[in-house]
Amino acid sequence: MSPCYKITDKTMAILPVGSPKNTSKVFESDQKKTLTFKEMPLSIIEKNCLRYFSSYNGRRAAVLYHEPNYKMKTPIPISSTKGIIAFPTQGPSRIDCAWIFYNHVAKIVKREGGSAVIFKNGTELFQPVSKNTLFGQLVRCHNLGHMIESSEESESPLSANLLDLQEESMTIRIGKNPVISSKK
Q: Does 37 fall in a domain?
């Protein structure tokens, strides 16, 4: 995988840039300046889904499995275990599509020609999208977050499974030699 911006819980937005040198700009909650990258926003989203052990198409398919009405501008859980959910402001393949990270949004305010996304750190980001559209995307992310939290996968943490294994008698072998042996 080629080097790419790493999405974390500090990522607030990834925007397209019409510059020959850079094609994305990233806003982070603790940065004073924006970061720029050569990848398109959707490419950054796709590579980070892979970084968190899934594909963009797999994450999108999972969302649509649970909520078929989210077919257009589908919110994407970049990392369901870390609660990182982003939503597109336009169709994801459009050149002007920005990605907003749900957990950082404080409010959306109507502005002439679109809306301002106000982040929890006070940063304001204008988008040429209606307030109702952006608010609808926030509601989708909120609902998706609750679906993920209440899913069966979230209810059975890995550590509980490992404790069950420790209680059983087991032998792990490499070739013919026992490596670890545990008996009750």
A: yes
Tally of domains in the chain: 1
Task: Classify residue 3: in a domain, yes or no.
Answer: no
77: which residues sit within 8 A by CB, 6+ positions away? Answer: 59, 62, 63, 84, 85, 144, 148
pTM, two decimal places: 0.81
pLDDT one-digit tens code per residue, 71-127 = 999 999 999 999 999 999 999 989 999 999 999 999 999 999 999 999 999 999 999
How many residues would you count in the chain? 184
Cα–chain center distance at 31: 19
**170 inside domain:** yes
User: What is the rounded distance in angstroms from the CA atom of residue 177 to the CA atom of residue 184?
Assistant: 20
Distances (CA, A) of 169 to 172, 176, 182: 10, 18, 5
Enclosing domain of residue 159:
11-182
- The torsion defined by the Cα of 94, 100, 106 and 107, in degrees rounded to 10, comes to 10
